[in-house]
């Protein structure tokens, strides 16, 4: 039946096709069952456009209905339970949900273009790129905590229609004490193993990779230093020969080891949001259907220097407080109380910045 829908869809003229858009929406049979797939591209106006295509295997079975190609794919979702290194993420935010500085989104757009299948195919056609090598990119997202690095990694994955295998790098030291080199290899080996078994190409996300990327110490140093250097060397080696899309996030700003900088082809900075960006963050995150006091003023809230992560937290905490009240009503004062708490709790050196901490 799906095949019929598909064939009907193909034979429609433009007008009819637009009328039948629901067939191509997320959750429709054609999309859900993997008969039609799409790529998302940022268009020059900042929106996202989708190009739909029939997946290779389906196309193959239409053209050669008698040949049954046997492909057995194990879903990543089932394989993931057998290991404790990665978390499997099915991204549900898209790039239009992220509020970013202009330069950051420009670099991201550029990156999206590089990862675009059409661009890749062009390069293969020209003989510049190897057909087998697929899409490769080694990316660093760097910037202060809570600026949206992880969220952007997920959103980028969603646009590229990929799943994410996420590794929390702070785990590395606790995995097997004293064997961090082995552990580094294990991350990559497990990743390749999972990719091989599923034949999908998830994005490898190395979250909070500060320990891997920090400047290596030189000269005479302790055994611990040496071990750390060794671990970083292995990491470097693995990065060097990595195939696929890898995103490392880090809070390090200046201190990224030069050797690493060179091996990543994209280094994207995440800045703390300015007033205007904070305003859109508040707008995006505040519950729409909640009651607000009459004099509630978003500009007032946007005046506080906070990251997206902090705004997210403050809204949640405030909502919990307001929800239990007899008459739940959001007031500016409620938020300001939570903002103060958040500011006091975070030692980010901004406390002395005067008016921001009324
Ligand atoms: N630039 C942003 N745009 C939209 N939401 C953001 C942004 N930055 C942070 N957030 C919110 O804060 C949460 C935590 O951000 P996260 O991506 O984990 O930050 P980081 O990885 O940089 O520490 C996100 O899930 C999102 O709700
Ligand atoms: Mg993060």
Can you describe what's shown?
The chain is an alpha/beta fold and 358 residues long. The chain folds into 3 domains: 2-63; 76-270, P-loop containing nucleotide triphosphate hydrolases (Rossmann fold, 3-Layer(aba) Sandwich); 275-357, Helicase, Ruva Protein, domain 3. The chain is built from 17 helices and 8 strands. It has a 6-stranded mixed beta sheet with strand order 3-5-6-7-4-8, with helices on one face. Helix 10 runs parallel beside helix 12 (223-240) and helix 14 (275-285) runs parallel beside helix 16 (308-323). It is globular. The relative contact order is 0.10.
- Do you know the CATH topology of the largest domain? Rossmann fold
H/E series, N to C? HHHEEHHEHHEHEHHEHHEHEHHHH
Report low-confidence residues grouped into runs of 5 or more: 350-358
If strands are numbered along the chain, what order do they take across the biggest sheet? 3-5-6-7-4-8
Q: What would the principal axes of the Cα set say about the shape?
A: globular
Computed CA radius of gyration, to the nearest angstrom: 24 Å
Hetero compounds: adenosine-5'-diphosphate, magnesium ion
